[in-house]
Amino acid sequence: METVEKYHAIKVDTEKCMGCTHCMKTCPTEAIRIREGVANINPDRCVDCGNCLRVCPVDAFYMDHDALDQLQNYKYRVALFSSVMIGQFPEAYSEGSIYEALLKLGFTHIFEVEQPIQLLIDSIREQVDAAESKPLISSFCPAIVRLIRYRYPSLIDNLVLVNAPHDLAAAYALQLLTKEGARREEIGIFYISPCSAKMAAVKRPLGEKESIVDGLINMNDLYSQIMKVISKKEEQDTSCCRDQLTHDGIVWSLPRGEARHFKRKSMAVDGIHNVVKILERMENDDIPELDFLELKSCHQGCAGGILLTGNRFLTVERLQKRAKRYPVTKDCPITNCNVQDLKDKLKINPIQPDYVFALDSDRMKALEKLQKVERILCQLPGIDCAACGAPNCHALAEDMVQGKAKMSDCIFLQNRYLNENKITLARATKNLEKAWGKNRFDADCNKRGGRNEGF
Amino acid sequence: MKMEFDIASGDFKKAGRASSQIKKVLKQLQVDPKIIKRIVVAIYEAEVNIVAHSFGGKLTAHINGNSIEVTLTDNGPGIKDIEQAMQEGFSTASKEVRDMGFGAGMGLPNIRKNTDELNVTSEWGVGTTVWFRNQF
Protein backbone atom coordinates (compact mmCIF):
# COMPACT_ATOMS: atom_id res chain seq x y z
CA MET A 1 0.00 0.00 0.00
CA GLU A 2 1.21 3.44 -0.82
CA THR A 3 1.92 5.50 2.24
CA VAL A 4 0.96 9.12 1.98
CA GLU A 5 2.66 11.49 4.37
CA LYS A 6 0.25 12.70 7.00
CA TYR A 7 -1.06 16.16 6.46
CA HIS A 8 -1.73 18.37 9.42
CA ALA A 9 -3.50 21.68 9.49
CA ILE A 10 -1.89 22.89 12.71
CA LYS A 11 1.56 24.45 12.64
CA VAL A 12 3.70 26.18 15.26
CA ASP A 13 4.99 29.70 14.82
CA THR A 14 8.37 29.32 16.49
CA GLU A 15 8.74 33.10 16.80
CA LYS A 16 5.58 33.40 18.84
CA CYS A 17 5.82 30.18 20.85
CA MET A 18 7.31 30.88 24.25
CA GLY A 19 7.61 27.25 25.27
CA CYS A 20 5.11 27.01 28.08
CA THR A 21 3.42 23.68 28.75
CA HIS A 22 -0.26 24.49 28.21
CA CYS A 23 -0.64 22.79 24.83
CA MET A 24 1.46 19.80 25.77
CA LYS A 25 -0.64 19.15 28.86
CA THR A 26 -3.98 19.34 27.06
CA CYS A 27 -3.16 17.28 23.97
CA PRO A 28 -5.37 14.16 23.99
CA THR A 29 -2.77 12.04 22.18
CA GLU A 30 0.37 13.34 23.90
CA ALA A 31 1.63 14.50 20.53
CA ILE A 32 3.48 17.61 21.75
CA ARG A 33 6.95 17.94 23.27
CA ILE A 34 8.91 21.08 24.06
CA ARG A 35 12.28 21.19 22.34
CA GLU A 36 14.63 24.17 22.39
CA GLY A 37 11.93 26.27 23.98
CA VAL A 38 9.19 25.68 21.41
CA ALA A 39 6.32 23.26 20.95
CA ASN A 40 7.01 20.40 18.61
CA ILE A 41 4.09 18.39 17.17
CA ASN A 42 4.53 14.70 16.40
CA PRO A 43 2.75 14.34 13.05
CA ASP A 44 2.12 10.63 13.63
CA ARG A 45 0.02 11.31 16.68
CA CYS A 46 -1.70 14.65 16.05
CA VAL A 47 -5.44 14.37 15.37
CA ASP A 48 -5.85 18.08 14.50
CA CYS A 49 -8.42 18.58 17.26
CA GLY A 50 -7.17 22.10 17.93
CA ASN A 51 -7.11 21.92 21.71
CA CYS A 52 -3.56 23.26 21.62
CA LEU A 53 -4.81 26.39 19.83
CA ARG A 54 -7.48 26.86 22.42
CA VAL A 55 -5.11 26.90 25.37
CA CYS A 56 -2.18 28.73 23.78
CA PRO A 57 -1.72 32.05 25.62
CA VAL A 58 0.30 33.63 22.79
CA ASP A 59 -1.53 32.39 19.65
CA ALA A 60 1.52 30.50 18.47
CA PHE A 61 -0.43 27.88 16.54
CA TYR A 62 -1.68 28.67 13.06
CA MET A 63 -3.15 26.99 10.03
CA ASP A 64 -2.32 27.30 6.36
CA HIS A 65 -5.24 28.78 4.48
CA ASP A 66 -6.07 30.65 1.33
CA ALA A 67 -6.76 34.36 1.03
CA LEU A 68 -9.84 35.86 -0.62
CA ASP A 69 -7.80 37.13 -3.58
CA GLN A 70 -7.64 33.51 -4.77
CA LEU A 71 -11.26 33.99 -5.78
CA GLN A 72 -10.15 36.01 -8.81
CA ASN A 73 -8.91 32.84 -10.52
CA TYR A 74 -12.42 31.56 -11.06
CA LYS A 75 -15.58 32.63 -12.84
CA TYR A 76 -17.89 30.78 -10.48
CA ARG A 77 -16.83 31.38 -6.89
CA VAL A 78 -18.52 29.06 -4.45
CA ALA A 79 -18.55 29.54 -0.68
CA LEU A 80 -19.20 26.34 1.24
CA PHE A 81 -19.74 26.56 4.97
CA SER A 82 -21.47 24.87 7.86
CA SER A 83 -24.49 26.71 9.20
CA VAL A 84 -22.60 27.47 12.42
CA MET A 85 -21.05 30.25 10.35
CA ILE A 86 -24.40 32.04 10.23
CA GLY A 87 -25.13 31.20 13.85
CA GLN A 88 -22.23 33.21 15.22
CA PHE A 89 -23.52 36.57 14.06
CA PRO A 90 -25.48 38.71 16.53
CA GLU A 91 -29.21 38.88 15.82
CA ALA A 92 -28.85 42.44 14.53
CA TYR A 93 -27.55 40.91 11.30
CA SER A 94 -30.10 38.99 9.29
CA GLU A 95 -29.39 35.91 7.27
CA GLY A 96 -29.98 37.97 4.12
CA SER A 97 -27.39 40.56 5.09
CA ILE A 98 -24.75 37.92 5.83
CA TYR A 99 -25.36 36.36 2.41
CA GLU A 100 -25.24 39.80 0.83
CA ALA A 101 -21.90 40.53 2.50
CA LEU A 102 -20.46 37.28 1.13
CA LEU A 103 -21.48 38.34 -2.39
CA LYS A 104 -19.82 41.71 -1.77
CA LEU A 105 -16.63 39.88 -0.85
CA GLY A 106 -16.63 38.26 -4.28
CA PHE A 107 -18.45 34.96 -3.98
CA THR A 108 -21.04 34.19 -6.63
CA HIS A 109 -22.68 31.11 -5.10
CA ILE A 110 -23.21 30.36 -1.44
CA PHE A 111 -23.98 26.87 -0.15
CA GLU A 112 -24.46 25.84 3.41
CA VAL A 113 -22.95 22.37 3.53
CA GLU A 114 -25.74 20.59 5.37
CA GLN A 115 -27.80 20.09 2.23
CA PRO A 116 -29.36 17.97 0.88
CA ILE A 117 -28.94 16.35 4.31
CA GLN A 118 -31.62 13.71 3.73
CA LEU A 119 -29.20 11.75 1.56
CA LEU A 120 -26.71 11.63 4.40
CA ILE A 121 -29.35 10.63 6.94
CA ASP A 122 -30.60 7.84 4.65
CA SER A 123 -27.11 6.56 4.02
CA ILE A 124 -26.26 6.47 7.75
CA ARG A 125 -29.55 4.79 8.56
CA GLU A 126 -28.98 2.11 5.94
CA GLN A 127 -25.59 1.32 7.45
CA VAL A 128 -26.96 1.29 10.99
CA ASP A 129 -29.75 -1.09 9.98
CA ALA A 130 -27.28 -3.43 8.30
CA ALA A 131 -24.63 -3.30 11.02
CA GLU A 132 -23.78 -6.48 12.89
CA SER A 133 -21.94 -4.77 15.69
CA LYS A 134 -23.62 -1.74 17.15
CA PRO A 135 -23.51 1.10 17.95
CA LEU A 136 -22.17 2.62 14.80
CA ILE A 137 -20.01 5.64 15.48
CA SER A 138 -20.47 8.84 13.51
CA SER A 139 -17.58 9.69 11.20
CA PHE A 140 -18.65 13.34 11.00
CA CYS A 141 -15.85 14.78 13.12
CA PRO A 142 -12.44 14.15 11.51
CA ALA A 143 -10.59 14.57 14.81
CA ILE A 144 -12.64 11.71 16.26
CA VAL A 145 -12.05 9.50 13.23
CA ARG A 146 -8.32 10.01 13.63
CA LEU A 147 -8.51 9.43 17.37
CA ILE A 148 -10.21 6.09 16.77
CA ARG A 149 -7.69 5.09 14.12
CA TYR A 150 -4.81 5.74 16.53
CA ARG A 151 -6.13 4.95 19.97
CA TYR A 152 -9.16 2.71 19.51
CA PRO A 153 -8.40 0.42 16.55
CA SER A 154 -10.77 -2.23 17.91
CA LEU A 155 -13.67 0.16 17.26
CA ILE A 156 -12.72 1.06 13.72
CA ASP A 157 -15.32 -1.25 12.17
CA ASN A 158 -18.01 0.66 14.05
CA LEU A 159 -17.36 3.86 12.11
CA VAL A 160 -20.07 4.84 9.63
CA LEU A 161 -18.51 4.73 6.18
CA VAL A 162 -19.92 7.89 4.75
CA ASN A 163 -18.49 11.17 3.55
CA ALA A 164 -18.95 14.41 5.47
CA PRO A 165 -21.53 17.12 4.72
CA HIS A 166 -18.90 19.25 2.98
CA ASP A 167 -18.23 16.47 0.47
CA LEU A 168 -21.94 16.13 -0.15
CA ALA A 169 -22.44 19.86 -0.58
CA ALA A 170 -19.40 20.23 -2.84
CA ALA A 171 -20.72 17.48 -5.11
CA TYR A 172 -24.16 19.08 -5.03
CA ALA A 173 -22.77 22.52 -5.88
CA LEU A 174 -20.73 21.11 -8.75
CA GLN A 175 -23.78 19.35 -10.12
CA LEU A 176 -25.93 22.49 -10.05
CA LEU A 177 -23.27 24.71 -11.59
CA THR A 178 -22.45 22.20 -14.31
CA LYS A 179 -26.14 22.17 -15.14
CA GLU A 180 -25.94 25.96 -15.51
CA GLY A 181 -23.23 25.36 -18.10
CA ALA A 182 -20.12 25.97 -16.04
CA ARG A 183 -16.94 23.99 -16.77
CA ARG A 184 -15.11 22.42 -13.81
CA GLU A 185 -12.02 24.60 -14.27
CA GLU A 186 -14.15 27.73 -14.11
CA ILE A 187 -15.54 26.74 -10.73
CA GLY A 188 -13.63 27.58 -7.58
CA ILE A 189 -15.00 25.84 -4.51
CA PHE A 190 -13.89 27.44 -1.26
CA TYR A 191 -14.52 25.66 1.99
CA ILE A 192 -14.82 27.93 4.98
CA SER A 193 -13.62 25.82 7.85
CA PRO A 194 -14.86 25.99 11.43
CA CYS A 195 -11.88 24.03 12.76
CA SER A 196 -8.43 22.60 12.19
CA ALA A 197 -9.71 19.02 11.94
CA LYS A 198 -12.03 19.83 9.02
CA MET A 199 -9.20 21.72 7.37
CA ALA A 200 -6.95 18.69 7.50
CA ALA A 201 -9.76 16.40 6.37
CA VAL A 202 -10.69 18.60 3.42
CA LYS A 203 -7.09 18.95 2.34
CA ARG A 204 -6.34 15.26 2.68
CA PRO A 205 -9.53 13.17 2.70
CA LEU A 206 -9.31 9.66 4.14
CA GLY A 207 -8.22 7.20 1.53
CA GLU A 208 -8.39 9.76 -1.27
CA LYS A 209 -5.52 11.63 -2.80
CA GLU A 210 -7.28 14.69 -4.03
CA SER A 211 -9.34 17.21 -2.21
CA ILE A 212 -12.73 18.09 -3.59
CA VAL A 213 -12.29 21.81 -2.88
CA ASP A 214 -10.05 24.39 -4.53
CA GLY A 215 -9.40 26.56 -1.52
CA LEU A 216 -9.62 26.64 2.26
CA ILE A 217 -10.64 29.72 4.17
CA ASN A 218 -10.38 30.21 7.90
CA MET A 219 -13.84 30.97 9.32
CA ASN A 220 -12.34 33.33 11.84
CA ASP A 221 -10.79 35.46 9.09
CA LEU A 222 -13.92 35.49 7.01
CA TYR A 223 -15.99 36.60 9.99
CA SER A 224 -13.81 39.69 10.32
CA GLN A 225 -14.02 40.37 6.57
CA ILE A 226 -17.80 40.09 6.64
CA MET A 227 -18.05 42.47 9.59
CA LYS A 228 -16.23 45.08 7.49
CA VAL A 229 -18.80 45.07 4.69
CA ILE A 230 -22.02 43.87 6.28
CA SER A 231 -25.05 46.14 6.35
CA LYS A 232 -27.28 46.38 9.41
CA LYS A 233 -30.29 47.11 7.21
CA GLU A 234 -32.58 44.24 6.36
CA GLU A 235 -31.45 42.97 2.97
CA GLN A 236 -33.44 41.21 0.34
CA ASP A 237 -32.81 37.49 0.55
CA THR A 238 -30.68 36.88 -2.52
CA SER A 239 -29.64 33.30 -2.19
CA CYS A 240 -30.81 30.80 -4.72
CA CYS A 241 -28.79 28.02 -3.15
CA ARG A 242 -30.73 27.32 0.00
CA ASP A 243 -33.49 25.22 -1.57
CA GLN A 244 -32.39 22.11 0.21
CA LEU A 245 -31.57 23.64 3.56
CA THR A 246 -33.76 22.18 6.29
CA HIS A 247 -34.25 22.19 10.02
CA ASP A 248 -32.32 18.93 10.26
CA GLY A 249 -29.42 20.31 8.25
CA ILE A 250 -29.06 23.47 10.31
CA VAL A 251 -28.70 21.60 13.60
CA TRP A 252 -26.62 18.73 12.15
CA SER A 253 -23.29 19.95 13.49
CA LEU A 254 -24.66 20.76 16.95
CA PRO A 255 -24.82 18.26 19.82
CA ARG A 256 -27.47 15.57 19.06
CA GLY A 257 -27.82 16.97 15.53
CA GLU A 258 -27.04 13.54 14.11
CA ALA A 259 -28.10 11.40 17.07
CA ARG A 260 -31.65 12.82 17.15
CA HIS A 261 -32.45 10.80 14.04
CA PHE A 262 -31.93 7.63 16.06
CA LYS A 263 -34.08 8.76 18.96
CA ARG A 264 -33.51 6.98 22.26
CA LYS A 265 -31.22 4.36 20.80
CA SER A 266 -28.53 6.95 20.41
CA MET A 267 -26.20 9.04 22.47
CA ALA A 268 -24.22 12.20 21.74
CA VAL A 269 -20.96 13.13 23.42
CA ASP A 270 -19.04 16.35 22.84
CA GLY A 271 -15.57 17.42 23.95
CA ILE A 272 -12.64 15.19 23.02
CA HIS A 273 -11.71 14.30 26.60
CA ASN A 274 -15.31 13.19 27.22
CA VAL A 275 -15.20 11.22 23.99
CA VAL A 276 -12.07 9.41 25.21
CA LYS A 277 -13.93 8.28 28.33
CA ILE A 278 -16.85 6.92 26.32
CA LEU A 279 -14.60 5.12 23.83
CA GLU A 280 -12.71 3.49 26.71
CA ARG A 281 -16.01 2.19 28.06
CA MET A 282 -17.14 1.08 24.64
CA GLU A 283 -14.00 -1.02 24.36
CA ASN A 284 -15.00 -2.71 27.62
CA ASP A 285 -18.46 -3.38 26.17
CA ASP A 286 -19.71 -1.22 29.01
CA ILE A 287 -22.22 1.09 27.36
CA PRO A 288 -25.96 0.62 27.05
CA GLU A 289 -27.47 -0.96 23.94
CA LEU A 290 -27.35 1.74 21.29
CA ASP A 291 -27.69 2.02 17.53
CA PHE A 292 -25.78 5.20 16.99
CA LEU A 293 -23.10 7.12 18.83
CA GLU A 294 -22.44 10.73 17.87
CA LEU A 295 -19.02 11.97 18.95
CA LYS A 296 -17.79 15.50 18.44
CA SER A 297 -14.38 16.78 19.41
CA CYS A 298 -15.47 20.30 20.39
CA HIS A 299 -17.81 21.20 23.24
CA GLN A 300 -21.19 22.19 21.78
CA GLY A 301 -20.18 20.50 18.53
CA CYS A 302 -19.12 22.72 15.65
CA ALA A 303 -20.62 25.74 17.42
CA GLY A 304 -17.52 25.41 19.61
CA GLY A 305 -15.20 25.05 16.60
CA ILE A 306 -11.76 26.47 17.13
CA LEU A 307 -12.15 28.91 14.23
CA LEU A 308 -15.44 30.41 15.30
CA THR A 309 -15.58 33.96 16.58
CA GLY A 310 -18.98 33.89 18.28
CA ASN A 311 -19.72 32.36 21.67
CA ARG A 312 -20.59 28.68 21.32
CA PHE A 313 -23.70 28.75 23.49
CA LEU A 314 -25.14 31.80 21.76
CA THR A 315 -24.41 30.17 18.40
CA VAL A 316 -26.34 27.06 19.39
CA GLU A 317 -29.22 29.16 20.66
CA ARG A 318 -29.44 31.19 17.44
CA LEU A 319 -29.20 28.16 15.20
CA GLN A 320 -31.97 26.41 17.07
CA LYS A 321 -34.15 29.45 16.60
CA ARG A 322 -33.19 29.70 12.97
CA ALA A 323 -33.90 26.03 12.37
CA LYS A 324 -37.49 26.52 13.46
CA ARG A 325 -38.05 28.71 10.40
CA TYR A 326 -37.04 25.91 8.03
CA PRO A 327 -39.02 22.84 6.99
CA VAL A 328 -38.08 19.43 8.34
CA THR A 329 -36.24 17.24 5.89
CA LYS A 330 -38.92 14.73 5.08
CA ASP A 331 -41.28 17.48 3.95
CA CYS A 332 -38.66 18.75 1.53
CA PRO A 333 -38.26 16.47 -1.51
CA ILE A 334 -34.96 16.55 -3.36
CA THR A 335 -35.87 17.64 -6.85
CA ASN A 336 -33.18 19.65 -8.55
CA CYS A 337 -30.29 17.19 -8.65
CA ASN A 338 -29.18 13.74 -9.66
CA VAL A 339 -29.74 11.90 -6.41
CA GLN A 340 -28.04 8.67 -7.44
CA ASP A 341 -24.86 10.49 -8.40
CA LEU A 342 -24.75 12.27 -5.03
CA LYS A 343 -25.41 8.99 -3.21
CA ASP A 344 -22.47 7.39 -4.96
CA LYS A 345 -20.27 10.29 -3.93
CA LEU A 346 -21.12 9.69 -0.27
CA LYS A 347 -19.55 6.25 -0.17
CA ILE A 348 -16.09 5.79 1.29
CA ASN A 349 -13.79 2.82 1.62
CA PRO A 350 -13.17 1.09 4.95
CA ILE A 351 -10.93 3.07 7.28
CA GLN A 352 -7.64 1.51 8.33
CA PRO A 353 -6.20 1.57 11.84
CA ASP A 354 -2.87 3.23 12.47
CA TYR A 355 -0.95 1.80 15.40
CA VAL A 356 0.89 4.95 16.43
CA PHE A 357 0.92 4.00 20.11
CA ALA A 358 2.65 0.66 19.62
CA LEU A 359 6.13 0.78 21.13
CA ASP A 360 7.55 -1.45 18.41
CA SER A 361 6.15 -3.43 15.52
CA ASP A 362 8.17 -6.42 16.79
CA ARG A 363 6.21 -7.69 19.79
CA MET A 364 9.20 -9.06 21.71
CA LYS A 365 10.98 -5.75 21.35
CA ALA A 366 7.83 -3.91 22.38
CA LEU A 367 7.59 -6.09 25.47
CA GLU A 368 11.21 -5.33 26.37
CA LYS A 369 10.56 -1.62 25.95
CA LEU A 370 7.46 -1.87 28.08
CA GLN A 371 9.40 -3.46 30.90
CA LYS A 372 12.04 -0.80 30.56
CA VAL A 373 9.37 1.91 30.86
CA GLU A 374 8.26 0.31 34.15
CA ARG A 375 11.83 0.30 35.46
CA ILE A 376 12.38 3.93 34.45
CA LEU A 377 9.14 4.98 36.10
CA CYS A 378 10.53 3.75 39.45
CA GLN A 379 13.20 6.42 39.12
CA LEU A 380 11.00 9.34 38.04
CA PRO A 381 9.32 11.60 40.63
CA GLY A 382 5.77 11.02 39.37
CA ILE A 383 4.64 14.62 39.70
CA ASP A 384 4.18 15.21 35.97
CA CYS A 385 5.82 18.64 36.14
CA ALA A 386 6.66 18.64 32.41
CA ALA A 387 10.00 20.36 33.05
CA CYS A 388 11.64 17.67 30.90
CA GLY A 389 9.65 18.83 27.87
CA ALA A 390 7.28 15.84 27.95
CA PRO A 391 3.71 16.07 29.28
CA ASN A 392 4.17 13.61 32.15
CA CYS A 393 6.61 11.14 33.68
CA HIS A 394 5.14 8.22 31.78
CA ALA A 395 5.48 10.01 28.44
CA LEU A 396 9.10 10.82 29.29
CA ALA A 397 9.78 7.17 30.08
CA GLU A 398 8.28 6.18 26.73
CA ASP A 399 10.40 8.78 24.96
CA MET A 400 13.46 7.35 26.68
CA VAL A 401 12.88 3.77 25.48
CA GLN A 402 12.36 5.14 21.98
CA GLY A 403 15.72 6.90 22.20
CA LYS A 404 14.15 10.35 22.15
CA ALA A 405 15.07 11.40 25.70
CA LYS A 406 17.44 10.44 28.47
CA MET A 407 17.37 10.01 32.23
CA SER A 408 19.06 13.32 32.91
CA ASP A 409 16.25 15.18 31.09
CA CYS A 410 14.30 14.81 34.32
CA ILE A 411 15.23 17.71 36.61
CA PHE A 412 14.76 15.58 39.72
CA LEU A 413 17.07 12.85 38.50
CA GLN A 414 19.47 15.51 37.36
CA ASN A 415 19.56 16.90 40.87
CA ARG A 416 20.29 13.44 42.22
CA TYR A 417 23.07 12.93 39.69
CA LEU A 418 24.56 16.32 40.65
CA ASN A 419 24.55 15.35 44.33
CA GLU A 420 26.17 12.07 43.48
CA ASN A 421 28.73 13.89 41.33
CA LYS A 422 27.67 11.84 38.33
CA ILE A 423 27.32 14.86 36.05
CA THR A 424 28.74 18.35 36.03
CA LEU A 425 26.76 21.53 36.51
CA ALA A 426 27.62 22.58 32.96
CA ARG A 427 26.19 19.32 31.62
CA ALA A 428 23.02 19.75 33.70
CA THR A 429 22.47 23.27 32.37
CA LYS A 430 22.97 22.06 28.85
CA ASN A 431 20.34 19.39 29.37
CA LEU A 432 17.79 21.94 30.49
CA GLU A 433 18.65 24.19 27.56
CA LYS A 434 17.85 21.33 25.23
CA ALA A 435 14.23 21.45 26.28
CA TRP A 436 13.81 25.11 27.10
CA GLY A 437 16.30 26.97 24.93
CA LYS A 438 19.05 29.37 25.92
CA ASN A 439 18.40 32.49 28.00
CA ARG A 440 15.56 30.74 29.73
CA PHE A 441 17.43 31.05 33.00
CA ASP A 442 17.99 34.82 32.89
CA ALA A 443 15.83 37.30 34.76
CA ASP A 444 13.53 39.12 32.33
CA CYS A 445 10.66 41.33 33.45
CA ASN A 446 9.21 41.37 29.94
CA LYS A 447 9.17 37.65 29.55
CA ARG A 448 5.85 36.16 28.66
CA GLY A 449 4.35 33.32 30.62
CA GLY A 450 3.85 32.55 34.27
CA ARG A 451 1.14 35.16 34.69
CA ASN A 452 -1.94 33.00 34.65
CA GLU A 453 -2.35 33.63 30.92
CA GLY A 454 -4.77 30.81 30.55
CA PHE A 455 -7.49 32.59 32.50
CA MET B 1 5.82 -8.88 32.30
CA LYS B 2 3.69 -8.93 35.39
CA MET B 3 0.94 -6.50 36.40
CA GLU B 4 -0.84 -6.56 39.74
CA PHE B 5 -3.94 -4.78 40.99
CA ASP B 6 -5.83 -4.77 44.27
CA ILE B 7 -9.58 -4.73 43.77
CA ALA B 8 -11.69 -3.36 46.61
CA SER B 9 -15.14 -4.68 47.36
CA GLY B 10 -18.00 -2.33 46.55
CA ASP B 11 -15.85 0.33 44.85
CA PHE B 12 -17.65 0.53 41.52
CA LYS B 13 -16.01 3.79 40.57
CA LYS B 14 -12.66 2.04 40.34
CA ALA B 15 -13.93 -1.10 38.62
CA GLY B 16 -12.28 -1.06 35.23
CA ARG B 17 -8.94 0.31 36.34
CA ALA B 18 -7.09 -2.95 35.81
CA SER B 19 -8.69 -3.58 32.43
CA SER B 20 -7.83 -0.04 31.29
CA GLN B 21 -4.19 -0.37 32.29
CA ILE B 22 -3.83 -3.79 30.71
CA LYS B 23 -5.58 -2.55 27.58
CA LYS B 24 -3.07 0.27 27.27
CA VAL B 25 -0.20 -2.19 27.51
CA LEU B 26 -1.70 -4.56 24.92
CA LYS B 27 -2.11 -1.65 22.52
CA GLN B 28 1.53 -0.73 22.98
CA LEU B 29 2.39 -4.31 22.08
CA GLN B 30 0.27 -3.94 18.93
CA VAL B 31 -1.85 -6.97 19.73
CA ASP B 32 -4.68 -7.50 17.22
CA PRO B 33 -7.50 -5.10 18.26
CA LYS B 34 -10.11 -7.86 18.12
CA ILE B 35 -8.11 -9.99 20.51
CA ILE B 36 -7.55 -7.02 22.82
CA LYS B 37 -11.27 -6.46 22.92
CA ARG B 38 -11.94 -10.05 24.04
CA ILE B 39 -9.30 -9.87 26.73
CA VAL B 40 -10.45 -6.52 28.02
CA VAL B 41 -14.09 -7.54 28.20
CA ALA B 42 -13.13 -10.69 30.12
CA ILE B 43 -10.94 -8.78 32.56
CA TYR B 44 -13.53 -6.08 33.07
CA GLU B 45 -16.27 -8.62 33.81
CA ALA B 46 -14.00 -10.42 36.26
CA GLU B 47 -13.08 -7.14 37.95
CA VAL B 48 -16.71 -6.20 38.34
CA ASN B 49 -17.41 -9.66 39.78
CA ILE B 50 -14.91 -9.06 42.57
CA VAL B 51 -16.25 -5.57 43.24
CA ALA B 52 -19.88 -6.64 43.23
CA HIS B 53 -19.83 -10.08 44.87
CA SER B 54 -16.70 -10.57 46.94
CA PHE B 55 -14.99 -9.17 50.01
CA GLY B 56 -12.22 -7.83 47.79
CA GLY B 57 -9.37 -9.48 45.93
CA LYS B 58 -6.42 -9.25 43.62
CA LEU B 59 -5.74 -9.45 39.90
CA THR B 60 -2.44 -10.60 38.46
CA ALA B 61 -1.68 -10.56 34.75
CA HIS B 62 1.32 -12.17 33.09
CA ILE B 63 2.01 -11.00 29.58
CA ASN B 64 4.56 -12.57 27.28
CA GLY B 65 5.18 -12.35 23.56
CA ASN B 66 2.23 -14.50 22.52
CA SER B 67 -0.28 -14.73 25.33
CA ILE B 68 -1.76 -13.23 28.46
CA GLU B 69 -2.61 -15.16 31.61
CA VAL B 70 -4.87 -13.54 34.16
CA THR B 71 -5.50 -14.78 37.67
CA LEU B 72 -8.11 -13.21 39.95
CA THR B 73 -8.36 -14.34 43.53
CA ASP B 74 -10.81 -13.04 46.08
CA ASN B 75 -11.24 -13.37 49.83
CA GLY B 76 -14.66 -14.93 49.73
CA PRO B 77 -17.47 -15.69 50.16
CA GLY B 78 -17.01 -18.16 47.28
CA ILE B 79 -19.43 -19.65 44.79
CA LYS B 80 -21.76 -22.38 46.01
CA ASP B 81 -22.46 -23.92 42.62
CA ILE B 82 -20.07 -23.03 39.81
CA GLU B 83 -22.14 -24.81 37.12
CA GLN B 84 -25.10 -22.65 38.03
CA ALA B 85 -22.98 -19.47 38.09
CA MET B 86 -21.77 -20.24 34.59
CA GLN B 87 -25.32 -20.14 33.22
CA GLU B 88 -26.45 -17.01 31.45
CA GLY B 89 -28.86 -14.98 33.52
CA PHE B 90 -28.15 -16.65 36.85
CA SER B 91 -27.40 -13.98 39.43
CA THR B 92 -27.16 -13.58 43.18
CA ALA B 93 -26.67 -9.81 42.95
CA SER B 94 -28.54 -7.55 45.36
CA LYS B 95 -31.13 -5.07 44.08
CA GLU B 96 -28.66 -2.28 44.87
CA VAL B 97 -26.04 -3.77 42.55
CA ARG B 98 -28.60 -4.46 39.81
CA ASP B 99 -29.82 -0.87 39.99
CA MET B 100 -26.30 0.23 39.14
CA GLY B 101 -26.50 -1.77 35.94
CA PHE B 102 -24.48 -4.75 37.11
CA GLY B 103 -25.44 -8.24 38.21
CA ALA B 104 -27.42 -9.35 35.16
CA GLY B 105 -25.96 -12.82 35.42
CA MET B 106 -23.76 -12.46 32.34
CA GLY B 107 -20.40 -12.12 34.10
CA LEU B 108 -18.96 -15.63 34.07
CA PRO B 109 -20.70 -16.64 30.80
CA ASN B 110 -19.24 -13.55 29.17
CA ILE B 111 -15.78 -14.36 30.51
CA ARG B 112 -16.06 -17.86 29.05
CA LYS B 113 -17.14 -16.44 25.71
CA ASN B 114 -14.14 -14.13 25.56
CA THR B 115 -11.33 -16.40 26.74
CA ASP B 116 -9.40 -19.24 25.10
CA GLU B 117 -8.96 -21.20 28.34
CA LEU B 118 -10.86 -20.65 31.56
CA ASN B 119 -10.68 -22.26 34.96
CA VAL B 120 -12.86 -21.31 37.91
CA THR B 121 -12.32 -22.85 41.32
CA SER B 122 -14.13 -21.88 44.46
CA GLU B 123 -14.64 -22.95 48.01
CA TRP B 124 -17.67 -21.67 49.86
CA GLY B 125 -16.54 -19.62 52.83
CA VAL B 126 -12.99 -19.27 51.51
CA GLY B 127 -12.92 -17.62 48.12
CA THR B 128 -12.86 -17.92 44.35
CA THR B 129 -10.02 -18.07 41.85
CA VAL B 130 -10.67 -17.27 38.20
CA TRP B 131 -7.84 -18.06 35.82
CA PHE B 132 -7.85 -17.55 32.09
CA ARG B 133 -5.50 -17.38 29.16
CA ASN B 134 -5.77 -15.79 25.72
CA GLN B 135 -3.34 -16.22 22.85
CA PHE B 136 -2.35 -13.19 20.80
From TrEMBL, chain B:
SUPFAM superfamilies: ATPase domain of HSP90 chaperone/DNA topoisomerase II/histidine kinase. InterPro entries: HATPase_C_sf, HATPase_dom. It comes from the Bacteria. Residues 37-133 form the Histidine kinase/HSP90-like ATPase domain. This is Anti-sigma regulatory factor. It comes from Maribellus luteus.
